[in-house]
Task: structure prediction
Amino acid sequence: MIIEYLLFAIGSGLGGMFRYAISLDPLFKQAHGTILLDTVLVNAIGSFIAGFTASLSTRAVIAETRSFMVGFAGGVTTYSAFSLETLHMLHSGHGVNALVFVMFSVTAYVLSAFAGFVAADYVEGP
Result:
């Protein structure tokens, strides 16, 4: 059991580092005037990983691997950043951008989780 917690912590740390690296990418910095693409991207990736991991049966992935994957997804998805960035847009008078950002983001996250489920079904087979 301690190994699962350790792997979860390692996955979480690596996921957080991945998220931070994406936020530093100059390509995404240019888009910050409209839609915050770095936040959408990392939350979609994290949602995909979460959906994929949740859908895998215990016979397809061992507990240690599941712990690492859940930790990584948790480190990547930053709903706190999502919330703060939305509030910043609202506070700055960009209510329409905030609304589009929220609607686009939530749609992308749900579709990514669904894609994770579909991918896991494909990997596991009949």
Observations:
- The mean pLDDT is 86.
- The chain has six helices and no strands.
- The longest helix spans residues 95-124.
- The radius of gyration is 16 Å.
